[in-house]
Amino acid sequence: MNFLTPLAFLGAFIAIPIILLYMLRLRRREVMVSSTFLWQQVMRDNEANTPWQKLKRNLLLLLQLTLLALLIFTLARPFITVPAVSSGKTVILLDASASMNAIDINGGSRFDEAKRQAADIISTLSAGQQVTVIRVSDVPEPLISDSGDRARLRSAINDAQPGFARADWNAALNLAAAGAADVTDFTIVIVGDGGVGETEGLPGVAGELRYIPIGTSGDNVAISALATRSLPGQAPQLYAEVTNYGGVDVEIVFSLRVDGELASSERYTIPAASSLPIVSTAALGSEFESLEAGINLSVNSAGADYLTEDNTAYTVLSQSTDRRALVMTPGNLYLEQVMRSLPGLEAFRGNIDTGIPEQPYDLYIFDSYLPDQLPAGDLLIINPPNSTPYFTLGAENSTTSNPRTISEDPRMAFVDFSTLSLLKFREISGAGWADELASVNGGAIMLAGEIDGRQVAVMPFDLRESNLPLLIAWPVLISNLVEWFTPLATLTDGDAVSVGDSLTIRPPAEADSIRVTLPNSETRTFPVTALGALIFAETSQAGIYTLEAFANGEVIQQQPVPVNLFSPLESRTQPIAAGALQIGQVTVAVTEGEELGQRELWPIVAVLALAMLLIEWWVYHRRQRIPTLMRPILRRRGA
Fold first, then answer.
1. What does residue 131 show for φ and ψ, rounded to 5 degrees?
2. In the predicted model, is pLDDT for residue 488 greater than 50?
3. Which tens digits make up the pLDDT trace of 142-172?
4. CA atoms of 432 and 447, how far apart (whole Å)
5. Rounded to the nearest 10 degrees, what angle do helices 473-484 and 333-341 cross at?
6. N-term to C-term CA, the chain
7. Sheet harboring 237-244: ordered strands across?
8. Contacts of 586 (CB under 8 A, 6+ apart)
9. Packing angle, helices 110-123 and 150-159, rounded to 10
């Protein structure tokens, strides 16, 4: 055992005056006696006033000396040498992502356990060691920087709260690495469940990387998708997907609330490590405003669900204004029929022979046809006959096996190409602006993106040479794309928004302010400036956000926006095992206590000193009560 402030032992000299006081003080004790014993009292007075008496056994003196020794021991700050995470400058990355709300650790949350582990690191700090604590959520937040004060560090960790979004590990690692400048001994410690996502793009950092794994189980059931779509000639229907990330089949109750009223409640069995698509049979009607879906495990379900934050999802009926679309096709009835059946879309058929009319449209759909000059508007190009300034058309390709889609993209939500049969397609190049939404072994068969201020989607194959128009995926795909092709008149686009994502708000030209109402009824108001679009980043809650545009104090436009936790990374709660976490090309080391730290023992000694003080106080006051208790006895004896 060692001591950080050994000079505190000089306080032991205080014991000398304590002992002297006991040797010099009057030892007369007040007792009522008869007058015949006055001479004995005189002798006692003389004896009590005699200085430098021999010390007698005294419990109070012993307690006071023991208390003094404990106080001196506390001030000396005793410590023992223990294994520590690092001995130099340390940055603790405290995982506060949505998955850290899982309650698979003795009934408590992973985040609570992560805070205990971080506090344990603080307890082993060496003298002069500096620590920075960063809370890692959708926006990394430094809780305390470059501090060696254990009390402040513990307080910052204890005050931290988990988030409900996906963590931005790229930004967190860059922020942590900024502290490595001019430091030779630098360590970053990740305290979490290891859900960092794709690691190839994460930055490398100087110094040591260490990992403290948190969590024990991957059992979780989540709503992984939710939307409403209108098929041709039908009222809106609900499309949902429930995913079981655990290792056993589970039985759930899927409930649906329309505008706050319970509309349906049904039981489903979700196979282990599988997803179950659900098409609701509930009558949604055509005028509902909001829809809330929820899941709960059945009482007799064999599995577990440790994360409840992904058990609820929200959606709304599209509130966008009617859009005008021009369809230019040589006679594709499948295309014409689906475009005319979509709600909120006013479709017009053009004449290829006469060309594009002068009247502007919000959306232009070109099937096996392209004009010499592309019009100013959003474009859906099917089976393009030639190249455009936006892409180069290549050779035909008949390698069309293994069709697949990017299901995480909202433009491909609920679109299943597994049964797609395609004869051939044209290869596309020079379209770096576009995302590849669907592909076959031969290459991309669907691309979409934004270029020159317009939204463009390309399908480089002839619909009549495929079975796509006969699949249920066809109307759903067109519905998704039309919802994506949103005119600037709406407040925000129709893309799905995840917790932690930013909302791009486009105020109408006549608006002077924008108000955002959060799911918890709090509001945020922003003035409209000449800068145009507003970026709203305060989406840390799941639920429905209401956007309102004001002009002269009156609402001129309103739009609800659902925000959900649709993140496989967060819902897949299986923690990364020790030694399996990678950052870039580096496997993160597990904390095994390779360095030496100092664990101070003074809090334990201070508690013992407090206990000794209470005992000394009790003994002293008990002795003071003895004369008072004796007086009735002496009176009965005739004193």
1. -130, 140
2. no
3. 999 988 888 899 999 999 999 999 999 988 9
4. 10
5. 60
6. 60
7. 221-229, 237-244, 274-279
8. 204, 209
9. 180
